[in-house]
Structure prediction request, 248 residues.
Amino acid sequence: MGKKVKVIGIGPGTYEMMTMQAAEALKDSTVIAGYNVYVDLVKDHFPGKRFLTTPMRKEEERCRLALEEAAKGEEVAFICSGDAGVYGMAGLLYEMAKDFEGVEIEVIPGITAAVSGAAVLGAPLIHDFAVISLSDLMTPWETILKRVRCAAEGDFGIVLYNPSSHKRHDYLQKACDVLLEVLSPDTVTGTVCNIGREGEEMHIYTLAELRDTPVDMFTTVFIGKSTTRVVNGKMVTPRGYAIERKED
Prediction:
């Protein structure tokens, strides 16, 4: 019993977009730990649990609380939005678990914003793509812009997480300036905000239009490849099947 922390990706936040494996793990838990905003998203679906929460920027404290409960023998579920291994807490929990003898970590995947947002927009990620966070809390801004440029030069589809905040209100604009040095201003782009939650919205823009579009921290941004098109109001990246048939 106990001695394990299950790190669970809960997807965009609605119960319907959570995997069955994630839901079962939460049902089996005695303690659910996580960022207070994410815990509020699941609390009503899992009554009778004990909840441990910390606010933003208290990640290490949150992980330690979960590990301490597991060490006591509790069945601990540690929740992350999207997927716990994509900008989530799985890595930090593995690192910190070394100090808690006998406590194991199990990662249960969830639907990350790149996938759930792409489904709203259409099919923008059919071919190779890169996922880049514009948050410079953990990564130098110069490194982020280098990655944005390299992805554009490689003609990858690009998904941008954390495109803006109160302190970083112009980061997407700066990223677009780098993209526009490489890509056509007519490149198809899209945004989805509040994916899978109340207030969900999607919009399709050209790259030039996107540069001057306000976004927030609940928005995921999609930059198309050179082949990405708008098809019946949806953002679509062909994989090349039509070309293959033509060659045959």
